[in-house]
Task: structure prediction
Amino acid sequence: MPLYDIQPLKIYNSLSGKKEVFEPLNEGHVGMYVCGPTVYSNVHLGNCRTFMSFDMIFRYLRHLGYKVRYVRNITDAGHLVDDADDGEDKIAKRARLEQLEPMEVVQRYTVDFHNILEKFNFLPPSIEPTATGHIIEQMEIIKDILQKGYGYEVNGSVYFDVVKFNETFQYGKLSGRKLEDMIANTRELTAQDEKKSPQDFALWKKAEPQHIMRWPSPWGDGFPGWHLECTAMSTKYLGETFDIHGGGMDLKFPHHECEIAQAEASFGHSPVRYWMHANMLTMNGKKMAKSTGNNILPGEIFTGENNILSKPFSPSVVRFFMMQAHYTSILDLSNDALLASEKGFHRLMEALDTLEVLETGRKSDFDLEPWKRQCYEAMNDDFNTPVLIANLFEAVKRINLIKEGKESISQSDKLELTQTLNAFVFEVLGLEQQKEGNGASNKLSGVVELLIALRDEARANKDFPTSDKIRDQLAILGIQLKDGKEGTTFSVS
Ligand code: AMP
Ligand code: ZN
Result:
């Protein structure tokens, strides 16, 4: 019997506002679409949090025995600077500023995105489609929407008619808005506006002569609206109705609301069964964002090169920090929080090492079944990783008691405990034991720590030639020492 049949999995569906029992469309299979990054600059840690939440969800669904088709796109066209229908394309703007081809920008930041995700030990999605690779599919949906009367063409652009749509369907149901209120709260359209109503959104935009990212279409040269790509790609790879659609909370409106409208207008029914939204990573209490500068890059965390940090932190420590919060809660990043996570992470890893060499006895004091059930109950309760982690620490406590000889464990229970811990820690949470943030293995870390201690001794004895030699020779080997308030740390390049 697959694990998913043992206990029901409940998912908080943002559309209904309730936790619902998860029942996939096709037994044993899950189709999941997550909005990917707009590749016009380096991903910051906030972006990583959303993708990490869905990596954990992907991992757990697989662990339960589902065959998951996970589609996460790359937005390489159509996302305009002000997120609405005006302004330059984000990628075209970056290309203009850096004097690059738009596809050079796309390539550069897609590679950066993949590198960072690999450091965080993400599983690759099943399909990673691009918006520019699906222009034809997007045009087909526009034609369909026009034919069904929910769109209109003006001067080479095509807009979605929200008022018309709202007569039959309900615009705003995902984000809990009412169209009348939205209209009352927006500015009047000016004479130059092409839209009939301010809530209408672009399906296709006419490309002005200077716009470099352009494609021929029945409506003239132009480019697709941002919301359309996700409808086109999710439909192509997962069908007109699929199980899970995810993204950051900030995408609920207008992006996901528009996706629903496009799909309902075109297919006549709702596209997604479970909408899932991951909450924001904040720093100094404010949302981490590219545009405001209130952000930190993963690379800065791995090297410790940022004013808010006292030292570098490894990708697994950062991952552990993220997993200690529920994916629907806001999480604030700080040096203290990372230090606390680092401590917890090391305690967990040490317990796994201890377990490996633990002596077994005839009987077990640790009743594994209820503990294991609680681990699954936590994850089946809308992927509650903080409760799972609290349970893992219950096991850590028991392992340490067994080590101290205060409790005992049988050989078969030791095996089961090892397998269960490995499954949750490595397979589901995606943590890794070996790699430290400074890029060193445990053994190398030990050697460098020894050299740092010898260098400290030399400095205390005013033997600067020796202390400099240690620092310089390590630098030649690609190991940089960094002196800080709390002692010397190092990174390996
Ligand atoms: P973008 O590249 O701007 O389209 O964003 C990629 C993903 O990152 C989207 O799902 C956003 O919702 C998400 N995101 C952006 N800022 C944050 C943040 N501060 N915390 C968590 N997720 C975020
Ligand atoms: Zn999307």
